[in-house]
Amino acid sequence: MRNEARNGQLDACLDDLGWAPAHLAQAVNRVLGPGYVARTTVADWVVRGRVPRDPLPTVVAHILAEALGHPVSPAGLWGPGTRPSTTWARADEGLPPPIADGATVDIAMQWVTRDGGDMERRSFLAISGVALTAPAFTVTAASPAGAAVAGALAPVVTPAIADAITTTVDGVRHLDDAEGGDVSTLRHAHEQFMLVAKYVRASSFTDAATRTRTINLWGQLAQTVGWMAMDAGQHGLAQRYFRTGLTAAHESGDPALASHIHGCLTYQAITRGHVRDAIDLANAGITIARGSPPAVRALAAARHAHAHAALGDVHGLRQSTEEARRYLDHPDALDTRPPWLYWLTDLSVVTGQSLIVAAFAGNGARQATGLLTEADPLITGWLGEQAERTEDRDALLHGTWLARSYLRRDNVEQTLTTAASLLTYASTVRSAQVRNILLDLETDLAQRADLRGHRSVLQLRADLKDFTET
Fold first, then answer.
1. Rounded to two decimals, what is the model's pTM?
2. What is the C-alpha separation between 439 and 449, in angstroms, rounded?
3. Under 8 Å CB-to-CB from 431, ≥6 apart: which residues?
């Protein structure tokens, strides 16, 4: 669409941010895919006032709003005739506060009627700042039970159906453990999520206890599918699942699950580079976990430690790690874990990962080397042949960080040995997050001028590229 007059609003936004058209083009391509727009296209938007096709007005407005820290609308950028996209929306669009009356059924209705079983129907833009953290300190307490039966034609959820849903939730959880998130696994998980969403929307149950149980199971499923969406790099979609899970946890009176979801949001914020958001979310997770079983409190403290690690705050990392250990050392910690916390048996690998993150966060070379050395036995022991069963996705994730750690300390042979052993997991792991970290390892190797002629390094780089491109 042509206008041929300079777009002063867009120009002013870019000027405030100190962005050139190329910077905005890169930001758009990170959301919509490589090569979606060119620098020259963005320049035409500014210089000639051209209005881009849908969904670009909405996506660009969102990107600028996130960067500027204040609202920017498509109409504000390109004129009152510019309508919001029908296929792209903010992750929190239309979602009620988690504590609002009827919020769970309202969200279920949105999933069924708007967001839908077809995952291509809508795409979601990840949010940050107050929009993300404001609902964090929600008080979680069981809401009054709704009507047990909503109507004669509604599908009635019985205790036996709730048992079947429990089996489904466990199956999706183990699918995530084994393969992580990608298009195939996420689609399957989403279909199971939507099946339960339809039950929640109909709000027809044999009794109040079955209603509360089903809503809680939906919240657990939302957490797992949200984690898979994050693992697949679909951060806006992940946030929408997580918000759904928070609302379901509130209505079913499960502060432990709510705290866990805040831990997931914390980890996601770190992955996206929004460390201050991560600190706020981790604080909320600790607050909500008060009164929960010791293992839940240990997980909340461990996420808090990870957030401090990403900030480069070693003191905060150590303080929160020690708190997590105290909780997990409680005699009843493992016996009182919620079923979804089956995987937390010790804090070795969690602590090792946080130490590596802290070292990579910009601490001085001497301190960084000390942190990386300290992390070695915590991760290598967890990955060893005598260690407890390790899922392929987690082995590849933490092992790749360990390989990067060895390279950071100029231990090339150990880097090669570790990375080569990890590639045995490659055929089963679909996680986009893991693939990105493997690419980071390849980038680390490529940037070492002294290794560009190293035959084994060149072979490893080729193997890494083959894996990440398949």
1. 0.92
2. 17
3. 179, 180, 181, 182, 231, 232, 393, 396, 397
Strand (E) positions, 363-449?
Answer: none
DSSP letter assigned to residue 96: P
Please report the DSSP string for 144-168 in residue order.
Answer: PP--S---TTSPPBPHHHHHHHHHH
The residues pairing with 157 across neighbouring beta strands, listed in sequence order, are 205
Give dist(CA 272, CA 268) in Å, integer: 6
Does a cis peptide bond (omega within 30 degrees of 0) precede residue 338? no
The 10 Å Cβ neighbour count of residue 46 is 20
pLDDT tens-digit readout, 197-253: 999 999 999 999 999 999 999 999 999 999 999 999 999 999 999 999 999 999 999
Determine which helix (DSSP H) or strand (DSSP E) holds 88, and give its type and residue range: strand 88-90
User: In which residue are the tokens 């903010």 written?
Assistant: 90
Which of left, alpha, beta for 126 (phi over 0: left; psi -120 to 50: alpha)? Answer: beta
For the chain, the structural domain boundaries read 8-86, 91-253
Q: Which residues contact 128 (CB under 8 A, 6 or more apart)?
A: 66, 269, 272, 274, 277
